[in-house]
Amino acid sequence: MSERAPAVAAVDFGASSIRVCRVELGPDAPRLSVVHRYAHSPAADGSGVLRWDWARLLAETEKGLAAAQEAGPLASIGVDTWGVDYGLLDAHGDPVAPPVSYRDDRTAGYAAVIDRLGGAAALYDLTGVQLVPYNTVFQVAAHDPAERDRARHLLMLPELVVHHLTGAVVGEPTSAGTSGLVDIRTGAWSPALAAGIGLDSAVLPDILPAGTPVGTWQGVPVHLVGGHDTASAVAAMGAGAGSRPAFVSTGTWLLVGREQPDPDLSDAARAANLTNEIGVLGGVRLLKNLAGGWLLEGCRPGWGDPPIRGLIEQAATVVDVPESRLDPTDARFLHPDDMLGEVTGALGLPRDTPPAVVTRVVVESLAAGTAGVLAELPGAAPSDIHVFGGAQSALYRRLLARCTGVPVHAGPAEATALGNAVVQGIALGVYHDLADARRHLGEP
Q: Residue 358 and which of 44, 69, 244, 341 are 20 to 30 A apart at CA?
């Protein structure tokens, strides 16, 4: 690789760990190094609200960016996080309070908000977003009025990090699109939806496309990328896909779907609770969310915190696999007090069932659930499936291939950071467009 190849920093917030990666871009495949990683989880505040430790996450971000600079100059920084969560800024540009986690139960009454906004069919037709309790629109409707009254800006989490780094107050299509407050046809905030939940639309920022430079951090340009981590991950799907590729982005959640030019707002898509997520550089991802690595992560404390990799390796050797399966779309797994009890209860297994057996049935359930989502997608069946992200395993891919009967390809574990980085590369002129960037990522 040329010594003049630019290096960028990809800040990737996951709901259980954040990573800062240094990625060298150029004529060959990108070279990625994870320079900083920090595990985290939300915690209840004094009033019982589940919040992210935002000050610590920002401090860890800057620690990671400093580490990325130690290896040489950076040409750009990009930030992605999970979707739906947001933060409020006051008149001085300071956080009103740490952001609330989507796993908080404050949105339990979200069905009443749906009715207030005109009903499920009308809401889906306007936003194209699946109706789940943690959507931003329902979170904001349930937000503490005292905090909301102090807010002058509402930023989705990726842009909240960008604001900390640069002072910019901006939105980005992929992160805004997870909110349930954006008109899927226009790509703009919906004033009617904001008014319907009592939100002054003046607090919503201008939405600028990925690749836009929005300021600097210690002299390094900061560019918007696919702020929603799934958008960034799918950008790194790579070349060599079949004629009808599907994808599974693995992490705390499994995001199962496909790319297509236009949203599907049909009654069938709504009935299947499919969501239309805005693509990082155009188009949409038609997909569904399934509980993913969160299930096993939640069970680990009840087993003495064994490593996930060891659990999967042992699960692959299980011969007598129980026939029971759990539904990874079931809301009971969103934030239970006792995940192990919830999982074994859903499977009809004793709580003291060996961890390898429980793990095997969970992975079998995830593969079956993934196949079920792919079967729900309108049109022809997928030609192949691309699995990427840090929560994938050979066992899951093998079971998925068995369930679907189509080839399953293993993609990069750090797909989100790679996608983040190549969008920065497009902004810097390293790549012509997304298709060119994907060619540099290589065959699956």
A: 44
What's phi and psi for 189, nearest 5 deg? -60, 145
Q: How far is CA 229 from CA 200, 234, 431, in A?
A: 27, 9, 21
pLDDT tens digits along 105-121: 999 999 999 999 999 99
202 in the same domain as 285: no
C-alpha dist (Å) from residue 291 to 181, 207, 256, 441 = 24, 29, 11, 28
- Provide the total of helices (H) and of strands (E) in the chain, helices listed first: 17, 16
Report the alpha-carbon distance of residue 77 to residue 92 in Å, rounded. 25
Number of independent structural domains in the chain: 2
d(CA 168, CA 39): 27
Task: Answer yes or no: 12 catalytic.
Answer: no
Catalytic residue among 12, 80, 85, 229: 229
Amino acid letter, 350: P
Maximum Cα interatomic distance, the chain, rounded to a whole number of Å: 61
Q: Where are the alpha helices (DSSP H) in 71-176?
A: 110-116, 120-127, 136-141, 145-150, 157-166, 173-176
Pair 315, 214 in one domain? no
**Per-residue pLDDT tens digits for 344-360:** 999 999 999 999 999 99
- Rounded Cα–Cα distance for residues 299 and 306 (Å): 10
- Record the pTM: 0.88
Which domain, by its residues, includes 347?
A: 238-411
Do 325 and 203 lie in one domain? The reply is no
The percent of the chain in helix, strand and coil, each rounded to the nearest 5, is 40, 20, 40
**Contact yes or no for 68/35 (Cβ under 8 A):** yes
